[in-house]
Amino acid sequence: MSDYKDFIGDFKESPVEIFEKWFQDAQDKEENAPAFILSTVDEHGAPNARTLLLKEVHKGKPLFFTNYNSVKAKEIDGNNNVAMTFYWHRLGKQVRIRGKISKCERDISRSYFQSRAKESQVASLTSKQSESVPSRKNLETEYHENLIRYNNESVPYPENWGGYYVEVNEITFFIYGEHRLNDRFQFVKKGNKWDSLRLYP
């Protein structure tokens, strides 16, 4: 039996399957399981990071939604290499993912947008994410005006809002151990296959 299987379990085709199982377990046991850090780089090569929520793993690709006019989206347009970091305290686990990112199909974005509560739809429609706003009052006024406007009708899907897929090419699993003797396993995609190895913690 390979070393990592004692801790992670077997998988058929991709270690992303392992991540999916961990993610499902985290959603049952962690207060903020979908939260992750998305890291990008700006036009000067400087790193940037923020916390987002993972919706699901769709056909082997992590999927999340955001504003396509945001700073993160502009950085993605300039460099589609990103990193994702998940930390689950109660489970004592961490996952780091690196890969290339791309927009998901528009019908998937539209369908998810329409499944959200109206208040969330209006918030996304109202937000000019990353742009300056004069005050909190201005933001709340715009939001409430839109709530009233669409009180009895459907909120139009904002074309500048949608999902991103991450095509995983490297994934590292951490299992925290006593005295910081953690277990750490890394999978790197080479063509259509995955190389695996144990790393020092």
UniProtKB/TrEMBL annotation:
Its taxonomic path starts at: Bacteria, Pseudomonadati, Bdellovibrionota, Bacteriovoracia, Bacteriovoracales
Annotated Pfam families: PNP_phzG_C, PNPOx_N
Q: Which residues form a coiled coil?
A: none
Q: What cofactors does the UniProt entry give for this protein?
A: FMN
| Species the sequence originates in | Halobacteriovorax vibrionivorans
Name the family the entry cites: Belongs to the pyridoxamine 5'-phosphate oxidase family.
Per UniProt, residues of the Pyridoxine 5'-phosphate oxidase dimerisation C-terminal domain are 161-201
Q: What is its EC number?
A: 1.4.3.5
Q: Which PANTHER family match?
A: PYRIDOXINE-5'-PHOSPHATE OXIDASE (PTHR10851:SF0), PYRIDOXINE-5-PHOSPHATE OXIDASE (PTHR10851)
Q: What class of enzyme is it?
A: oxidoreductase
Q: Which InterPro entries match?
A: Pyridox_Oxase, Pyridox_Oxase_N, Pyridoxamine_oxidase_dimer_C, Split_barrel_FMN-bd
Q: Which UniProt keywords apply?
A: Flavoprotein, FMN, Oxidoreductase
Where would I find the Pyridoxamine 5'-phosphate oxidase N-terminal domain in this sequence? Answer: 31-142
What is the protein name given in its UniProt record? Pyridoxamine 5'-phosphate oxidase
Q: Which GO terms label this protein's molecular function in UniProt? A: pyridoxamine phosphate oxidase activity
